[in-house]
Design a protein that fits this description.
Keywords: Membrane, Transmembrane, Transmembrane helix. The chain is mainly α and about 130 residues long. It has one domain. It is built from four helices and no strands. Helix 1 runs antiparallel to helix 3 and helix 1 packs across helix 4. The protein is elongated and about 60 Å long.
Length: about 130
């Protein structure tokens, strides 16, 4: 019914955060960018772009699925479940359970992918090039 609203909200927040971080990084000195380039590590905002993409694609696919199943309408109240008070309660339960679970799973998968990518980059960088903390 409306489970896609949670990934959509998360995608919007992640996209706005990505834009803000990218804007801040553009203002920083070239020395910092050279240090990041030397370590071959992606800036965090580029990693967030991956999460935002995953969330937007998931949201789009779920919207299409819900339209095809007749759970979404192109007129008010948009959600077929929102036509009755009982339907609204069911809709809110779905948002709280399925929507949150989907968002958590996507974010966890993204975090694992980023950890794996960082591990892979660390193994590929010769010891003489590594930046020590």
């Amino acid at each position: 019914m409306s489970c896609f609203t949670v990934p959509m909200a998360e995608a919007a927040l992640v996209t706005l955060t990505t834009i803000a971080l990218e804007y801040r990084a553009a203002k920083q000195s070239k020395d910092l960018h050279e240090a990041v380039s030397a370590s071959e590590k992606k800036p965090f905002y580029q990693k967030l772009k991956v999460l935002a993409t995953w969330l937007w694609v998931t949201t789009g696919a779920l919207i299409i699925d819900h339209i095809m199943n007749g759970e979404l309408m192109l007129s008010y109240p948009f959600f077929t479940a929102a036509q009755t008070p009982e339907g609204i309660e069911t809709m809110m339960h779905e948002i709280a359970t399925i929507g949150v679970s989907m968002s958590a799973f996507i974010t966890l998968a993204w975090a694992l992918k980023m950890m794996f990518d960082d591990y892979k980059v660390r193994k590929e960088i010769p010891a003489s090039v590594k930046i020590h903390n």
